[in-house]
Amino acid sequence: MRTLDDLDVEGKRVLVRVDFNVPLDGTRIADDARIVAALPTLQELRERGARMLLAAHLGRPKDREPELSMAPVAERVGELLGAPVELAPDLDHVPDGDIVMLENVRYEPGETKDDPELARRYAALADLYVNDAFGAAHRAHASTHAVAQLLPHAAGRLLEREVRVLTGILADPQRPLVAVIGGAKVTTKIGVLDAFLERADAVLLGGAMCFPFFKVEGHVVGDSLCEEEGIEPARRALAAGEGKLELPSDLVAGREFSADTEVRRLDGVDVPDGWMGLDIGPASAARYAEVIAGAGTVFWNGPMGAYELEPFGEGTRAVAEAVAEAPGTTVAGGGDLLAALGHFGLKDGVDHLSTGGGASLEMVEGKTLPGVEALS
Ligand code: ADP
Ligand code: MG
Fold first, then answer.
1. Are 142 and 29 in contact (CB under 8 A)?
2. Would you say 186 and 240 are in contact if contact means Cβ atoms under 8 Å apart?
3. Is the pTM higher than 0.85?
4. Which of the residues are catalytic?
5. Which atom of ligand 1 lies closest to the CA of 340?
6. Do strands 276-280 and 177-181 pair parallel, antiparallel, or not at all (unpaired)?
């Protein structure tokens, strides 16, 4: 993969694809972490004398919805860089400034179709192409894939680091390699679960995705969130994971999915009728912490419970504290998990926070990402 070290950017106009798909609260940016993550690349390009044309998508526009305009993002980038960022209203009216942001690339119908004609219009605006949008690298779109074929190109620093860390986990991890996988559904995590059952030394499960496993084992799940389509994948994973796969041994349950519901600790994992399992219990959290403390590498995706509800966040918090103290290399990814770590103030305890949800998972599953392949 070519990196910024391989490009002479001085005096050139560089088209930089970034992942600025930030959560919005109306037209206010609710969390600018994705913008902050791209700053090293943008600052380096500026220091090396490049002029920048930033390209990114925001949400899933269907018809140029003005509320999905990049305007608030351009403003925030300008504040963070300490320099004005001009917004180009469309591809025919791109101002000549030092830092220009294109409008939402998904305003163009050809973007998600990897349209070569749209890619040619992007390429005509710049001398070089840099892709730092790791979070969009699993998509073959005009601004992440087709355009790379038309200009001298390289990976930005964020994308470079993501690829190095995540392929390192696959290729040559410090052992024991421990995967912690949580979240709501088995079916969204089955690829990564299979990948780690093959390669890891231990796989620790949490979250509602445990309930299909418990059902297969003959436990009752009460009113817990238990994905029906997850039962067969869980049955297969249980058979394949013999000796490696660990499930919680105790749970914290609530009457309903609410912070002020009645709360009960369950000694085992049978959930009575009228209750739902909403977190792993303290014995499970302590067991997971012990495995994590002995790990050479930890990969964590998905929270251990309904962390958004105060009484059901302790399992995720305890695992996050164990990860923060772990001597091994630690990597965490997933939208909700990162939100949970932020919520507990434990983001800094992780060595590498992966910015790409789907892209991180596909990377550790060993898949080829079109946006990454286009940079080699
Ligand atoms: P990520 O975004 O980190 O990949 P997921 O989206 O797969 O994670 O899962 C996160 C969601 O799962 C959160 O909204 C959380 O409330 C929910 N969740 C986790 N455990 C449970 C549970 N036991 N019961 C209900 N919901 C749960
Ligand atoms: Mg999620």
1. no
2. no
3. yes
4. 34, 185, 335, 358
5. 3
6. unpaired
Rounded Cα–Cα distance for residues 194 and 370 (Å): 22
Probe ligand 1: pick from 189, 204, 336, 365, max atoms within 8 Å of CB? Answer: 336
CA 239 to chain centre: 28
Residues with CB under 6 A from ligand 1: 183-184, 188, 207-208, 225, 277-278, 301-303, 305-306, 308, 334-337
Low-confidence ranges of the chain (pLDDT < 50): none
Ligand index nearest the alpha carbon of residue 357: 1
Q: For residues 70 and 20, give the distance between their C-alpha atoms in angstroms, rounded to a whole number.
A: 9
Task: Return the pLDDT at 98.
Answer: 97
In this structure, is the dihedral angle defined by the CA atoms of residues 242, 246, 250 and 251, taken in order, positive or negative?
negative
DSSP 189-226: THHHHHHHHHH-SEEEE-STTHHHHHHHTT---TT---
User: Is the peptide bond preceding residue 311 cis, with omega within 30 degrees of 0?
Assistant: no
Q: Given this model, what pLDDT does residue 335 score?
A: 86
Q: At what angle do helices 314-325 and 335-343 cross, to 10 degrees?
A: 80
pLDDT of residue 137: 97
Q: What is the pLDDT of residue 273?
A: 97
Q: Could you give the count of Cα atoms lying within 13 Å of 249 in the half-sphere of its Cβ?
A: 9
For the chain, how far is it from start to end, CA to CA, in angstroms?
A: 4
Q: How many CB atoms lie within 10 A of CB 26?
A: 8
Task: Give strand ranges (E) for 114-156.
Answer: 128-131, 153-155
Shortest-distance ligand to the CA of residue 181 = 1
- Please tell me the distance between residue 81's alpha carbon and the centre of ligand 1 in angstroms: 35
* CB-based neighbours (< 5 A) of ligand 2, an ion: 335-336
DSSP 136: G
- Quick one: tokens of 103? 């409008």
Q: Rounded to whole angstroms, how far apart are CA atoms 203 and 74?
A: 41
Q: What are the tens digits of pLDDT across the range 309-336?
A: 999 999 999 999 999 999 999 999 988 9
The token pair that represents 174 in the structure block = 């410090």
Kindly state the tokens that stand for 218.
């003959």
User: How far is CA 253 from each of CA 143, 227, 276, 315, rounded to the nearest angstrom?
Assistant: 46, 17, 5, 12
Tokens of 168: 């390192």
> Could you identify the residue written with the tokens 């902050």?
36
Q: Give the SS3 label for residue 266.
A: strand
The two three-digit tokens of residue 311, written as one number: 């009484």
